[in-house]
């Protein structure tokens, strides 16, 4: 399974829900949503800054990760940014790949 960084930013409506019911309820909901797609949550963190919640999760494929983003984003309570994460070994493998590429202006 691939690892993903999921960054969540709550709308005013979403923040009202967190204030009313608490953070552990949101974590349980996030874990259930990820698991319903065949994934698992490595970590769930509330954060300061641009994102209100940071989730590190495993999904079976990009389609499943996109399905979560669509479900959360279309709910009206939050927006989502999803980033595919790679291991150092993945980066090593990518560096060894032969690529036929011509830079712009060449």
What attributes characterize this protein structure?
106 residues, Alpha-Beta Plaits
Provide a descriptive summary of the structure in words.
Helix content is 43%, strand content 29%. The chain is of the alpha+beta class. The chain has one domain (2-87): Alpha-Beta Plaits, CATH 3.30.70. The protein has a 4-stranded antiparallel sheet. A hairpin with a 6-residue loop joins strand 2 (40-46) and strand 3. The mean pLDDT is 96.
Instruction: Using the coordinates shown, work out and report the CATH topology.
Output: Alpha-Beta Plaits
CATH-defined superfamily: Lrp/AsnC effector binding domain/regulation of amino acid metabolism (RAM) domain
Query: What is the subunit organization of this protein?
Result: single chain
Largest sheet: 4 strands, antiparallel
Percent strand equals 25-35%
Number of helices: 4
Structural class: alpha+beta
Tell me, what's the shape? elongated
For the biggest β-sheet, the strand order reads 2-3-1-4
CATH class: Alpha Beta
SSE order: EHHEEHEH
In total, the number of domains comes to: 1
Arithmetic mean of pLDDT:
96
Helix content: 40-55%
CATH architecture group name? 2-Layer Sandwich
Gyration radius from CA atoms, angstroms: 17 Å
Provide the low-confidence segments as ranges. none
Number of strands: 4
**Gap between N and C termini:** 38 Å
Give a short synopsis of this structure:
Helix content is 43%, strand content 29%. It has 106 residues and is of the alpha+beta class.
């Amino acid at each position: 399974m691939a690892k993903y960084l999921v960054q969540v930013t709550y709308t005013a409506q979403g923040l009202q829900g967190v204030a009313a019911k608490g953070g552990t309820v949101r974590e349980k909901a996030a874990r259930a949503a990820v698991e319903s797609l065949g994934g698992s949550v490595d970590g769930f963190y509330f954060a300061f800054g641009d994102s209100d919640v940071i989730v590190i999760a495993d999904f079976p494929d990009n389609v499943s990760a996109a399905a979560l983003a669509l479900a959360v984003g279309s709910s009206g309570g939050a927006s989502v940014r999803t980033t595919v994460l790679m291991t150092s070994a993945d980066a090593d493998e990518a560096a060894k790949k032969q690529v036929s590429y011509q830079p712009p202006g060449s």
